[in-house]
Design goal:
Blueprint: H1 10-45, H2 60-75, H3 87-90, E1 96-102, E2 105-112, E3 124-128, H4 137-141, H5 144-154, E4 160-165, H6 173-185, E5 194-199, H7 203-212, H8 218-223, E6 224-230, H9 234-237, H10 240-248, E7 254-258, H11 262-274, E8 278-282, H12 288-291, H13 293-306
Helix pairs in contact: 6-7
């Protein structure tokens, strides 16, 4: 049997050659296009074309690291940590940590907000004391100090000055007056009466001023513009005549206690009865401001607003 070999005509051969040429051209186009696309990032990053570049968003942490690097280049060595930088530059809430001397003692404090000046006579000054088991650090670690400072920056147009003090809970009215005068001399406070927050045992100093007012009410009104006691136990033992002094002096009072704090509720009841205080119960224990920090800040700011402080 003969093997049949197909014979290609000239037309078929020409069509095959044309098809191969077309495939090669298409592949070449894809290769050239791919090479061009791969080269675009390099062109953009080299700054060769403005249309391919974009602005980079730098995070606060990155910005801080860049600042540290810049300081390292200029000074020869970088700080060990950000606390070694100017705190006003690092902390967006501008919380400063300093101390003043009064008598033979030293009073550490945190502060944020504007300092007193002739340009701001309507400054609202809020002073935070602390209970026996706590320090000024609890105002910061709880986030309350940060919240107050943020409200100051965003909502109160920088008119709220906040100071958290490490005044001993053993302090009486006289010692509180000395600390107040020291902060005034160092231009942390204006010297005008301020609003005081006194959790638990720190209320002793405010009650002591009330006792002193029986002989001279001027010391009470010189220091205290408004009072926010948080379950301040000294109120329970104070005589009615002392509690009446705050009403006589027209000192607004916001008494706060936790719903799990029976003693704190007694404090609120006595102050509403004898000192014309506004009473507020929040969810929490004896240190209710730490259990319900956001609600606490809300009540404080509402009180300041209602009383025009």
């Amino acid at each position: 049997m003969k093997t049949m070999v197909p014979i290609r005509s000239p037309t078929t051969k020409g069509q095959s050659t044309h098809r191969v040429t077309l495939y090669a051209a298409v592949i070449a186009v894809f290769v050239i296009t791919g090479i061009y696309l791969l080269a675009l990032p390099k062109i953009g990053s080299s700054g060769g074309s403005d249309s391919t570049t974009s602005s980079e968003v730098v995070s606060p942490r990155t910005a801080l690291n860049q600042r540290l690097s810049a300081m390292s280049s200029s000074s020869g060595s970088a700080p060990k940590n950000k606390e070694e930088l100017d705190e006003e530059d690092v902390d967006p809430m501008k919380i400063t940590h300093e101390s003043v001397a009064y008598g033979e003692k030293t009073l550490p404090y945190y502060h944020c907000g504007p300092l007193p000046s002739h340009d701001n006579p309507e400054l609202t000054e809020l002073v935070l004391l602390h209970g026996a088991a706590f320090t000024k650090e609890d105002w910061k670690s709880s986030g309350i100090l940060d919240m107050l400072c943020q409200i100051d920056n965003e909502e109160d147009e920088g008119n709220l000055s906040i100071s958290a003090l490490d005044l001993p809970v053993s302090a009486d009215g006289k010692e509180l007056g000395m600390a107040f005068d020291a902060l005034t001399s160092n231009k942390i406070l204006s010297g005008r009466a301020a609003t005081f927050v006194s959790p638990s045992a720190s209320g002793k100093a405010i009650v002591s001023l009330g006792e002193m007012a029986a002989n001279d009410i001027n010391e009470l009104t010189r220091i205290i513009k408004a009072w926010i006691p948080v379950a301040s136990g000294a109120v329970v033992k104070a005589p009615e005549s002392t509690l009446l002094q705050y009403k006589s002096a027209n000192i607004p009072i916001l008494a706060i206690h936790g719903d799990q704090d029976a003693m704190g509720k007694k404090v609120t009841n006595r102050l509403t009865e004898f000192s014309d205080a506004k009473g507020v119960e929040l969810e929490g224990r004896h240190p209710v401001y730490l259990d319900s920090p956001e609600e606490f800040v809300q009540e404080v700011m509402q009180f300041l607003d209602e009383k025009g402080l």
